[in-house]
Amino acid sequence: MGVGIQVQDLNAWYGSTHTLQDINLHIPANHATALIGPSGCGKSTFVRCLNRMHETNPIARATGVVKMGELDIYKDASPVEIRRRIGMVFQRPNPFPTMSIYDNVASGLKLNGFRNRRIIDETVERSLKQAALWEEVKDDLKKKSGASLSGGQQQRMCIARALAVDPEVLLMDEPASALDPVSTSKIEDLIFQLKSQYTIVIVTHNMQQAARVAENTGFFLNGKMVEFDSTHKIFTNPRDKRTEDYITGRFG
Amino acid sequence: MSSTPMLPPRPPIDFDTPVMRFHRSRRKVTNIVVSGLAILATVIVIAPLVAILVYLLYKGASSLNFNFFTKIPAPVGEEGGGMANSIVGSGIILVLASLMGIPIGIAAGVYLSEFGRGKFLANAIRFTADVLNGVPSIVMGIAIYSLIVMRQKHFSAFAGGVALAIMMVPTITRTTEEMLSTVPHAIREAALGLGVPKWRTVLSVSLRTASPGIITGCMLAFARVAGETAPLLFTAFGNQFWSVKLNEPIGALPLQIYVYAISPYDEWHRLAWAGSLVLIVMIMVSVTLVRVFASRGALKGGN
């Protein structure tokens, strides 16, 4: 089951650039939350702070409190543990090119030392079914490289790979921006189904996409969160003038 | 909603003027000339290699027989004899050198690329590796002579292996570093994002993705030291008799070729040619075997 995330006074820097300023936010469990805003506004940095990927960059640093349920992810757990429990799907599909489709999906389990073949087999099948890719790849799971799939299939494989380690939260950083409309709509259907089991945070440039998949939407601008509310409210009756300007296309 | 100003209509462009036709044919000619130069360069590079191999076959093949691979060298004045001890000795020294040089070389490359970026120690190691790459091989032999042979008070196969291993390390380290730096950052992030620890990401994802290039580097280093004579002169020393012990002087093909080639006897000259042929074939076979073995696990559609 998914779990909610509470963010308090989150600040983040790349070198001397202050990319995130005093973010406060509650992401409810088992809902999809969309983050919108112009390029460079800090949305990606924000989601990377939620699973401590931000700190893999040597010049990056973050302060503040991020709680997953009762767990303070910066104090009470290791980054490795957090990244398993908070999965991530990246903007561009990033399959492991030397691994088969099967090994790509199983990689999170195998590389963590998990050895039970039967459970790995079951997990690979279940995850690929959850990602709506099973029917397309079931015949050459171990024969084909993950990199041989089309872009849309690769991205669904990456979603399956993230689901295979049984995360509670799924972070998606513009998961459909490199894909064609058909693949995009498949990914959106997927998000719709997955949110009953996971808490989903999705960064997107596509406002229709936010409106279609997310219950709540946050608007970021210049490293600050300008407004956070139900998606319906944001798109029909935003409180802030800047939000209104952005969603009506007056800038960005 | 859109406020982009209308651009003035664009005048039509004529792509069929004499000047444009001239440039088109000029590009065609340039293409042919440059392709021809590239082919010529390839031929110039390959031709001496083929010539050497053919000449070795011509000079050495006639002296190759069963005895060459089974007998030890015959004393001066006696007919026959072979290089069995040197062939086995070379094999032992090279296996020893690879067992030491390849793990150390790869480990150092991993440190440079994955852990030491921008650190003083990494820059120092990189500089040392580049300098080590340029050290004449005879100097390496003398260094190992004073470090190992002088202390043990005897020549040994082990000392020869160490000398060759040290010569392999810089090439392997630098290729490993280069190859790891071509692995896209997104692939590492994918592994880290699954909750895979960094050491495991390096071993199972970065190294695995870079492995074809790293294997090439190891093969280059191996082929380079397989024919080295100078570092073995004061370390493995050579041996006219059977020995497979690591702490005793051992025969090696390059040493045996050297001894025979500077001798005054025609029979020994012929054996030196045969030894050279065997050495080159051994290197070619081992490089090919590794390539075939490494490409067997490749998947459809991977890269």
Could you explain the architecture of this structure?
The complex is a heterodimer of chains A (252) and B (303). Helix content of chain A is 36%, strand content 25%. With 252 residues, chain A is an alpha/beta fold. In chain A, a hairpin with a 2-residue loop joins β9 and β10. In chain A, α4 crosses α6. Chain B is mostly helical and 303 residues long. Chain B has 11 helices and no strands. Chain B starts with 17 loop residues before the first helix and ends in an 8-residue tail after the last helix. The model of chain B has no long low-confidence stretch (mean pLDDT 90). Chains A and B meet through α2 and α6 of A and α7 and α8 of B.
Give the biggest sheet of chain A: 6 strands, mixed
Look at the helices and sheets of chain A and give the structural class. alpha/beta
Name the CATH architecture of the domain at 5-95 and 167-248 in chain A: 3-Layer(aba) Sandwich
Strand order of the largest sheet of chain A: 6-7-8-3-9-10
Please provide the count of β strands of chain A: 10
Order of helices and strands of chain A: EEEHEEHEHHHHEHEHEEHH
Q: What order do the helices and strands of chain B follow?
A: HHHHHHHHHHH
Number of helices of chain B: 11
- CATH architectural grouping of the largest domain in chain B: Orthogonal Bundle
Ends distance of chain B: 46 Å
Rounded average pLDDT of chain B: 90
Secondary structure tally: strands of chain B = 0
GO cellular component, one term (chain B): plasma membrane
Family (chain B): Belongs to the binding-protein-dependent transport system permease family. CysTW subfamily.
Main location (chain B): membrane
InterPro entries (chain B): MetI-like, MetI-like_sf, Phosphate_PstA, Phosphate_transprt_permease
Quickly list its features.
heterodimer, A: alpha/beta, Rossmann fold, 6-stranded mixed sheet, B: 303 residues, mainly alpha, 2 domains, 11 helices, Phosphate ABC transporter ATP-binding protein, PhoT family (chain A), ABC_transporter-like_CS (chain A)
